[in-house]
Specification:
The complex is a heterodimer of chains A (291) and B (130). Chain A starts with a helix and ends with a helix. The longest helix of chain A has 75 residues. Chain A has 291 residues and is of the alpha/beta class. Chain A is built from 6 helices and 6 strands; from the N terminus they run ααβαβαβαβββα. Chain A has a single domain, classed as Pyruvate Kinase, Chain: A, domain 1, CATH 3.40.1380. By secondary structure, chain B is an alpha+beta fold. In chain B, β1 and β2 form a beta hairpin. The N and C termini of chain B lie far apart (39 Å). Classes of the chains: A alpha/beta (291), B alpha+beta (130). At the A-B interface, α1, α5, β6 and α6 of A face β4 and β7 of B. β6 of chain A pairs parallel with β4 of chain B.
Chain lengths: 291, 130
């Protein structure tokens, strides 16, 4: 059994760990509120954008000559996967969930004989993927220096993607991120952004009564790159809310576990303290008796 | 007759402006300025750098925009833009900074005609409001 001193030291160390996790939880909770708000504030923009593009793509007369960002290159040989993760750890299964989802997608692609290229956004994803898929990672982007998610960062990522698309580097682009549902649930998502998936909302009735100025093609050419930035921005916002949520619940768990551990250690400490006293008493009594 | 319609200006990260009492909006559309009144036909267009004017019975507001998309439908004008500055209490430094950036950009050689045109527009507008 550990000595009294050792136990005491352990109790203090667990207690200070608990203090840290508790503080981290508080910080995450405050950040979560802000992240959640900005995710909600960002929604109208991406929804509107999506609506306009849907309306446009239904109105387009000549599907064959539609911009490549909308209709694709006609092949699906080279896949580009953009993995959005966080730059910091200690957030439970947040990064692991995205990576798991991405990895299963990768192995499916490889089985089908497709070529795979990866761009990682956020250093945690890069750390975890470079061991197995190191040779597939073509770029690693990190926004460690920007404090909050902002649109310019999203634009930077989308510019990289669009440049590569125009150079014919890939045919299909999918982004991976965590969608924020609530504090305990974050759903890893895979969303295809190039070519744009317009079939999802088919059931809605799209009356095409718009006038376009200039014509549809030109608007689409202007709009599609913006839409990619918007989608990435949305993913980044969702991701940051998810990250804080995951961190908050992970730190909550850690605080609780630390509490349990302190209780257990205290009982053990008291027990061995009592045992030591009893032992001393016995020694004294038996010493007195032998006289 | 009531001639008011609603406008919303949305930034990627927030809703910038929402009003229900505007009577006319002048937008710097790509192919020239466009005035929008109530019962305008549904339209989608995009913006070039310029000044956005919002007129209502009580006042007139002006904004500087760099790019964006406009949609008008069912008497609601939606403007999606990532760069918009109010000219009411204008921030000189901000405008000077934008002007400087634009000037730098215009010195680049390998510009397409379209981006050259957009930058020229930008310079012109920025100079006029400065």
């Amino acid at each position: 059994m550990a000595s009294l001193d050792d136990l005491k030291k352990r109790i203090t160390s667990v207690k200070s760990t608990q203090k840290i996790t508790k503080a981290m939880k508080m910080v995450a909770a405050a950040k979560l509120k802000r992240a959640q708000e900005s995710a909600e504030r960002g929604r109208p923009y991406s929804e509107k954008m999506n609506n306009i593009i849907l309306n446009l793509s239904f109105g387009i007369s000549d599907k064959e000559n539609a911009p490549k960002l909308l209709s694709g290159t006609g092949k699906d040989q080279i896949h580009l996967c953009v993995i959005l993760t966080s730059d910091r750890g200690l957030c439970g299964g947040f990064n692991a969930n995205i990576i798991k989802k991405a990895k299963s997608y990768f192995s499916k692609l490889i089985e089908e004989g497709k070529e795979l290229k990866i761009i990682t956004v956020g250093s945690k994803g890069n750390d975890q993927l470079k061991r197995v898929y190191g040779n597939k990672i073509i770029e690693n982007i990190s926004f460690k220096n920007s404090k909050n998610v902002n649109y310019f960062d999203a634009e930077k990522v989308s510019k990289i993607i669009i440049n590569r698309f125009e150079n014919g580097d890939f045919d299909i682009c999918t982004i991976f991120y965590n969608q924020f549902k609530n504090v305990i649930t974050q759903i890893p998502q895979a969303q295809q952004i190039i070519p744009l998936n317009t079939t999802n909302n088919d059931q809605e009735n799209h009356e095409n009564s718009y006038e376009f100025e200039p014509d549809e093609d030109e608007i689409l050419n202007n709009l599609l790159p913006k839409n990619i930035s918007t989608q990435i921005f949305k993913a980044m916002l969702e991701n940051s809310a998810s990250e804080q949520g995951a961190r908050m619940s992970a730190m909550d768990n850690a605080t609780r576990n630390a509490g349990e551990m302190v209780d257990k250690l205290t009982i053990e400490y008291n027990r061995s303290r009592q045992a030591a006293i009893t032992k001393e008493l016995i020694e004294i009594i038996s010493g007195a008796e032998s006289l | 007759m009531n001639e008011e319609f609603s406008i919303e200006i949305i930034n990627p990260d927030k809703s910038f402006l929402q009003r229900k009492d505007v009577t006319e909006v002048v937008i710097p559309a790509f192919e020239g300025e466009m005035g929008i009144l109530k019962e305008h036909i549904s339209i989608i267009s995009f913006l070039k750098p310029g000044i956005l004017k919002i007129l209502s019975n009580s006042n007139t507001e002006e904004y500087y925009v760099e790019d964006g998309i406009v949609e008008f439908k069912d008497n609601t004008l939606s403007i999606l833009t990532s760069s918009i500055i109010s000219l009411q209490n204008k921030d000189k430094n901000k405008i000077l900074e934008l002007l400087k950036n634009a000037e730098e950009e215009s010195t680049k050689k390998d510009l397409s005609d379209q981006s050259q045109y957009l930058i020229d527009q930008k310079l012109e507008v920025l100079k006029s409001i400065n």
